[in-house]
Write a structure and sequence with these properties.
Elements (H helix, E strand, L loop, with lengths): L3 H6 L7 E4 L3 E5 L7 E7 L14 H18 L6 E4 L15 E5 L9
Antiparallel strand pairs: 1-2, 2-3, 3-5, 4-5
Amino acid sequence: MKTLFEKIYDREIQADIIHHDAICCAFRDISPKAPTHILIIPRKPIPRIGDASTADQEILGHLLLTAGKIARELGIDQTGFRTVINHGPHGGETVPHLHVHLLGGRQLTWPPG
């Protein structure tokens, strides 16, 4: 059974997709926590970062490089942005499919909530 994110990647569910390639897809979060809130998901359904293996190294690197590329394209690279990967319920994970949050467009506080 496909995850929600696999269905978005395969365009079975509509999303505001801003990037799509053979390894990952990026789209605007439907419940943004910052003016810019993008989710970057791998095509391969890795449940969470703690389940990734060394075989996933290329995918993980591609996700982060894509986050930087999108930040530049959206103009948030100069003022700053944050990337977040949640793991498990205490980490804030709500969809069991690894994804990178790209947040920016305002001053972000530390520590996060």
